């Protein structure tokens, strides 16, 4: 018997192998009949003190992708969502689930610096693309920087440094700093110290309490006893709401000036009410920037989410914009890693906060605004520091 050998068509081979078996030989983006969806693993807090922050990042990211036609680089999107609870102890396990079990193309998260560092480690170990839409931990774009790690938000040092410069320019010399006892608090205070020192100012006392505790009475009693010229603070989310209310209730508002990184009053004003009026903070976003991009974004976010945008929504939106730019450049081929990274590195994001670029360490180089709470807004006052870059200490790419 002669055996006839023919060159089987691709379709015949696939039929013989069985679709499932064949799919395992093919690159993810060439699934049978159509390109596979790009998987975005959203690891964010959906519960706890940072829940509102995570939800705004999530919804604004989806808004940016919807505005890009619901596709990135021509490919449809699948979202895999995981609540990280702002719990550093579960960070590595959660990130590993998304990377090894769900096989996401991009890991996106998170809000809390401690959880973000666990994500940085998992992304580094697995060479997975990571985009950080909030957490400011310095090491992510400092000592642990890497080609596959990007941030669309800020480093904790940046708003602190800007506020230190403002306080120094006012001639203040004696400050007290108060925050949660974790990376974001420490690094925010360090940034403030550096800016403040430029005018000869010194942080004489640091009062820290464990995250996410909100029992502020002992701290407020100490502030009243010490009477510094100015109090610098980093709190965000539910903790920021409580701190601002307790500060006013303790009779300190109006007697000991309170300033902070802008998270103190962003996305929190409705809940803080009268207690927040007049507070001054520094951040890479403000109300009243008078930018067409900001106006269109705010209108679109309000329509999509049914609430007002804040800095977290802006950062989520810009994460979507960064992904859209990178994936458009490689036509959705997530395997084209070098060109993808190169495209993401050179993008200028037209952000609601104002246009920004990324530093060599992949952290935004952006303006920091001084804002003052007036009514329901963090009103733009002035540019505190223009085009501020994080020092990226320890980053070998910078
Ligand atoms: C952080 O943990 O890095 C962080 C959390 C909330 C707001 C800003 C920074």
What descriptors fit this protein?
six-stranded mixed β-sheet, single chain, alpha/beta, 14 strands, Rossmann fold, about 400 residues, disordered N terminus, binds benzoic acid, 13 helices, about 40% helix, globular, 2 domains
Describe this protein's structure:
- Helices cover 39% and strands 20% of the residues.
- The strands form 2 sheets. Strands 7, 8, 9, 10, 11, 12, 13 and 14 form an 8-stranded mixed beta sheet that branches. Strands 2-3-1-4-5-6 form a 6-stranded mixed beta sheet, sandwiched between helices.
- It is built from 13 helices and 14 strands.
- The chain has helices at residues 10-17, 19-25, 51-67, 91-101, 113-126, 157-169, 183-197, 217-226, 237-249, 269-272, 292-305, 311-329, 337-346, and strands spanning 38-44, 71-72, 75-83, 106-108, 129-132, 149-151, 174-180, 202-209, 230-234, 258-261, 280-283, 357-358, 364-374, 377-388.
- The site of benzoic acid has 12 residues, from loops.
Short description:
The protein is α/β, with parallel strands linked by helices and 398 residues long. It has helices at 10-17, 19-25, 51-67, 91-101, 113-126, 157-169, 183-197, 217-226, 237-249, 269-272, 292-305, 311-329, 337-346, and strands at 38-44, 71-72, 75-83, 106-108, 129-132, 149-151, 174-180, 202-209, 230-234, 258-261, 280-283, 357-358, 364-374, 377-388.
> In terms of per-residue confidence, which ranges show pLDDT below 50 for 5 or more consecutive residues?
1-33
Distance between the termini: 69 Å
Q: Indicate the structural class.
A: alpha/beta
Rg to the nearest angstrom?
Answer: 23 Å
